[in-house]
Amino acid sequence: MAVPMETQLQSIFEDVVKTEVIEEAFAGMFMDTPEDERTKLISCLGAFRQYWGSLPQALIGSETLEWERTQLWCLTFRFIRKIIGGVDYKTIPNQVSSAVVQQLLPAREVVEYILDRNACLLPAYFAVTEIRKLYPEGQLSHWDLFEPQTGLLRYVLEQPYSRDMVCNMLGLNKQRSETEEQFDDGGTSQLLWQHLSSQLIFFVLFQFASFPHMVLSLHQKLAGRGLIKGRDHLMWVLLQFISGSIQKNALADFLPVMKLFDLLYPEKECIPVPDINKPQSTHSFAMTCIWIHLNRKAQTPDPQTPTAKSKLQIPIPHSLKLHHEFLQQSLRNKSLPMTDYKIALLCNAYSTNPECFTLPMGVLVETIYGNGTMRITLPGTNCMASCSTTPLPMNLLDSLTVHAKMSLIHSIATRVIKLAHAKSSIALAPALVETYSRLLVYMEIESLGIKGFISQLLPNVFKSHAWGILHTLLEMFSYRMHHIQPHYRVQLLSHLHSLAAVPQTNQNQLHLCDPKTVLSAESEELNRALILTLARATHITDFFTGSDSIQGTWCKDILQTIMNFTPHNWASHTLSCFPAPLQAFFKQNNVPQESRFNLKKNVEEEYRKWKSMTNENDIITHFSMQGSPPLFLCLLWKMLLETDHINQIGFRVLERIGARALVAHVRTFADFLVYEFSTSAGGQQLNKCIEILNDMVWKYNIVTLDRLILCLAMRSHEGNEAQVCYFIIQLLLLKPNDFRNRVSDFVKENAPEHWLQSDWHTKHMSYHKKYPEKLYFEGLAEQVNPPMQLQPQYLPIYFGNVCLRFLPVFDIVIHRFLELLPVSKSLETLLDHLGGLYKFHDRPVTYLYNTLHYYERQLRDRTNLKRKLVHAIMSSLKDNRTPGWCLSETYLKFGMNPREDNVWVPDDTYYCKLIGRLVDNILCFVL
User: Fold this and answer.
1) Is pLDDT at 122 greater than 60 in this prediction?
2) CA torsion angle for 819, 820, 825, 828 (degrees, to 10)?
3) Does the keyword Nucleus apply (predicted)?
4) Are residues 623 and 632 in contact, defined by beta-carbon separation less than 8 angstroms?
């Protein structure tokens, strides 16, 4: 029979307090020695320890504690509830000796286990809130979610265009290291410091960080550590903010930098002048530039007391004397070469001193403006520009402080507006346009950069009707502004679309720059492109989120507005790829397909009128009348097919129709071609049709290839007609050599990294001389009888050509071909001959990923086509990327194997290595 717990405890207690008879007789007379007391205590504790050790480890862990035993269950938890508040939670001092680590580690293990989310212990969930209250800055190690994520933040800060992500991570809302690496020109280290300086300016400018507090914090963290190797780079970052804000802020806000200087630059050191032929020399001079700005501020009267002279003196430190003397001597030399970084040093040091700043900045602007007298030709007829062709190199622009860059871009924008007001017949110098494009990528100067471009420069140029400069700005947007933030892009596109509707902009070249804008009131192709983009974006988003993101009212409003502007329908093979809500919308808003037979009938009727009318003015008036059916390109086709020539009247009608209305004629012509090719009999007739169509593009210059292909690719033909449409596209692109030769030579002779090139204009002109583009029907004017002498005034072309204009159209063509299984082989052929163009795509991997994801169902069983698509895009970049930059060696070896009899099936080892590669790349940034 088990002895009750009370009896056992009573027995232990009695043994401890038991006394002898003599002690009881002489109570109070006997006293135990300390040794006796210690002996009793040890005996008592030993007895209790032995007793508790014989019991189950915990009440809750007892085998007999089961919920069916009602009384035991209730009494046990009541007992726990009664004693739990009296538990003595031991506390540990904040500062303890390392000798007690042995005691701390077991306690830490217990606490970590209690708070371990994988252990699923309720105290973990209850304790997190209290821990975060006690340690708001994450001073206590607990769940990863609440630990200081400095590694992650550092990784995100290193990424280009990461500013908004950092703001989200830190919960910020704005109103609208020691290194052994010797960086070289464009080196990774230099780029990281430049990026860091951009981030600093943003966070301090919007008061998310305090500059004095940050500098003092740096001083505190660096004190006593002897870290000086990265000091020049650190001072370069601080110079960025100081030079641009010291005129507006109090001097006291910047004086902590001198305290940091005293720590990092020993007093006895005298820093030698570095090699100014290297860009890193601007970092070496950063502290000297800071001192010059601080000293000038110290000598400037306070605006509140302008008559009072400043008594504050900041003597030149001994370590900076050689640097300062070099800058002073350079100022006295009025001839500043562009072969070194002396101009950048002077701009950085004296950007707040107009008397000294004028000289170096003047050299920069004169270099890119041209001398005002010499002229060079641009592509096209009668187009001349100022003669400067070599832009300021990126290394030089990177070496300028933000303040100096803002002065330069302000000077450029001011000059462009001035020339627009003056309606100058001389185009901007290529060097100026390229340099301006390069400056627009710097996020730290966006107020004068892209924001000024959209809100000030563009409206002023348009108001002055300076179409040449407007075309230049559109070219910059199309071919140079690859990485502007989305909201700026949308704002610019919307603005341009409103400008495009103005009658004065009815100009061929301007309409070739027609942007892929948000919504168009008249361009069906642009609205279709938006819907296709919306379909792909929602497909990918819904895949990862598991929701129907397109169900919102905003999307339906956009679709309905598009249908009101440009009613249209979609081919079934295209519609089947759309997300379900988009499919449902277009099924509910079906637009009847115009009869191809009726189109053919109307063309025949108009052609009879053309042949029967005799009065030239009546003919021109009738066929160019606004609001009449857009059939004239179909008539020109029939003229060439039947008579092999077009007369002068045809040319004059084209001129009268105008660039804007001609777009609708191309769209109708695309439908008419498909009907004609579908009903033509015999290979000989087909060959003649292709020859005439090719002549309309390359011989007569009636329609550009990119515009015609875009309209063909965007039509909604079904079945056999769809295959014929894609057949026409393939023949136009590949059968004649005209376009293939242009693509081959352009890919071979040019590189995509235009920002690293100084001779872009030379190659640009060489290409246009070899393959001149005629955009004003010059070929037709030469072929009519008698020939017409044309001298059209071309707008300046700085970057574009038919190959680059075709590239976004090629994106669409590939997608259309993927939707129709019977034309797979044709697409493979197109990729073989034209895939090299993806060398110049601004986001080739993103495009490839989106394509493979969106068309996964169509590509699932078409291994060759999928491989061909990956190979075409990736191989186009092989000369401009390091090996293994995108695809693993295993995939390149086995995944690109074209042999169908040995299809590669990845095993678990491949996927393990792939995940390992991902983990390694993440860890190398985070740790």
Assistant:
1) no
2) -20
3) yes
4) yes
